[in-house]
Amino acid sequence: MDSTDLIRQVRTIELKTRRLVDGLFAGLYLSSFKGRGIEFDEVREYVPGDDVRAIDWNVTARTGRPFIKNYVEERELTLMLMVDISGSTGFGTTGRFKRQLEAELSATLAFSALRNNDRVGLALFSDRVERFIPPLKGRNHVLRIVRELLLAQPSRRSTDLGAALDYVNQVLKRQALLVIISDFRTGDYARPLRISARRHDVVAVQIEDPGERLLPSVGLLRLQDAETGHEVILDLRNKRVREQLQSSAESLRKAHQELFRSLGVDAVTLSTDQPYVEPLAALFENRIRRRR
User: Beta strands of 144-256 (E only): which ranges?
Assistant: First the structure.
């Protein structure tokens, strides 16, 4: 796209996602995700009901009255967006490609972080990390991330989430909120995801298209794997063929979900034919309930 078209698309995404952020997501984001820990705030006099474990014995001894150390949560976060740009994310049957949904969702999260003065970084990956932008603050930085999402053209079409997680695990030295946005059509990634889940707060967002779940009875159809180029011809008039393909897709989806549950990774599935606002808000609200 030329520069004029790019500026227009960036502005459109900013306006659309900012409305969502201002109306809903900024508060949910703030309440859902913890900061890096707690920091000392002040020493104050003990009142009945305070945790006795917080008593500052040195001040108490000097004054002859009980005082406690008061702490507050350190809110500042680092949001790291890991976005799959492999060949399969260029698929879509509903007027919107998976890649487009990824870009809009990423922008919503990035502007939510901006609203809360958090740092945002980006890792675009295929079977390797294609582009890495270190976490920084500010509107110009977030707009740069949106531009990179819109312009992303992978040098390779296959996916290796495990390699991308290994890379991010090496370069992120501090705890972060790590959001993985992908269709998860990849090889084994359990080991590096387990490492990430120990170091960071990880959220998995699985992007799918209805054309991958429900295959129409349209007769002979030539299908090509978007990542390997491998082609097959299937007769979709055959009910058993359709059921086998749908069963395989559902089994793969359940395997991902079971892995996320076993590692304590929050997960949500979004589809190109559905608005993402409600399921994403539900994810945030579930996290808020758990914190309370």
Answer: 177-182, 201-208, 220-224, 231-235
Q: Which two tokens stand for residue 269?
A: 């599935």
Range of the domain at 47: 37-74
Apex 233 CA angle, 231 and 236, nearest 5: 135
Summarised one tens digit per residue, pLDDT across range 33-51 is: 765 455 566 788 888 777 7
CA–CA separation, 135 and 137 (whole Å): 7
- 45 and 82 together in one domain: no
Answering whether pTM is above 0.85, one says no
Domain boundary among 20, 55, 74: 74
Task: Find, among 38, 25, 158, 1, the residue nearest to 79 by Cα.
Answer: 25
Please tell me whether residues 52 and 135 are part of one structural domain.
Answer: no
Coil, strand or helix: which one is 291? helix
- By the 10 Å C-beta count (0-12 exposed, 13-18 middle, 19+ buried), 5 is classed as exposed
Contact criterion met (CB below 8 Å) for 108 and 25: yes
Q: Which of 215, 214, 176 is nearest to 196 (CA)?
A: 176
189: left (phi over 0), alpha (psi -120 to 50) or beta: alpha
Res 196: pLDDT? 97
- 130 has a pLDDT exceeding 90: yes
Distance CA 169, CA 175 (A): 10
pLDDT at residue 214 greater than cutoff 80: no
Q: Are 51 and 160 contained in the same domain?
A: no
